[in-house]
User: What shape does this take?
Amino acid sequence: MELISNILLIAGALGAAVYCIVLSRRLKKFNQLESGMGGAIAVLSAQVDELTKALEKAQSTANTSAEQLRTLTKRAEIGAEKLEIMLASLHDLPEPAPQDTTPEPRPAPTVPLEPVMTEEANAPKRPRVVRRRNRDNMEAAE
Assistant: This one.
């Protein structure tokens, strides 16, 4: 009886050893950084870190922009109040006397009697050369 129990115990130990070897190989393949899930997990972890930093930077920028907007809004409200006070004080002023709004006549523009001759006007004119491109070459270049 002892012999049978020892044989079963050795078989169980060998089965557990084979199972551990199989699990070990699968875990190595799973954790390989180049091709396995370990590489994907490492890449995703790095992207999460980058996104977290970008989010923190965006939040700080948004907070500073919001603070600047608050100060500008307060300045605008103060300016609007001053404008309202100035507008109200304009209503208290007496109306100005009507003025003659007819425009004064303007003198006619003077035109020179003789055209002014320059050295460029006396110089002989050079012939103009016009070059045209062949449309077939342009289509081939495109």
About this structure: The chain has a mean pLDDT of 82.
